[in-house]
Amino acid sequence: MRAIIPTIISATVFLMACSSAGPPHGPKYTPSASEESATDCPKERGRAQAAREALLGTRDPLLRQRSIQMVFEHAECEESVLKTLASPQGDADQILAGLRALRGQSTTAITLYKEVRLHGKPMLLIRSLVAQGRIKIAFAKAARATAAPAELDVSQRAEFQGELAIAAKVLHQEAQKLLEEALLLAGSVDEAEVARAEACRLLASISASSTACPAS
């Protein structure tokens, strides 16, 4: 029975393992076709892909920014779908299935936000950083709310919940870095007030030690 724990924990770690580092920064934007997979955002994905394809063979800055805007809107849609997914409950198989669903949806949203982060204008860059932090905090909340499989005994359930708490702590650390980066960039962008306020609110919910926001 104890073999159930590492199986579920490894799946949980994989769910939470969306790196906050992101791809390397660089001046060139080269659009590429994304893998076709099931999505609840077909219109947004279609518009984003069409905008990417319109960039092929051109360096038009207006087309470039339109492409990034379409990608951002697709990311927002995929994140909204993520919010509808409940924390996994039930037996081990049900929990693993729920974790896979969360992992897949969250990976889609974060990948799109990273694309915006790499190529977007300052305001979209800031918003994408805040969004990635927001998703990681949601991951942590889902992890903490995941009930231990019914087939585990008392000590195994305690171990399971302990491992999930560790995963949630790591996610909070990653979210804090993203949000603090967003706040650093927002300091030089006048129209970033709303994003700055959300970043501070999110930071306050996970960290009492961060000094990125003024004391209230």
What does this structure look like?
- Helices cover 69% and strands 0% of the residues.
- The protein has helices at residues 4-16, 42-55, 61-82, 92-119, 122-145, 154-186, 193-206.
- It is built from seven helices and no strands.
- It has one domain.
- The chain starts with a helix and ends in a 10-residue tail after the last helix.
- Helix 3 (61-82) packs antiparallel against helix 4 (92-119), helix 5 (122-145) runs parallel beside helix 7 (193-206) and helix 6 runs antiparallel to helix 7 (193-206).
- With 216 residues, the protein is mostly helical.
Précis, in short:
Helix content is 69%, strand content 0%. The protein has 216 residues and is mainly α.
| H/E element order | HHHHHHH
The share of residues in helices is 55-70%
On the 0-100 scale, what is the average pLDDT?
82
Distance between the termini: 49 Å
Task: Kindly name the structural category.
Answer: mainly alpha
| Low-pLDDT windows of residues | 18-35
Please tell me the total number of domains.
1
What's the SSE blueprint?
Elements: H1 4-16, H2 42-55, H3 61-82, H4 92-119, H5 122-145, H6 154-186, H7 193-206
Supply database-style keywords.
single chain, 216 residues, mainly alpha, 69% helix, 7 helices
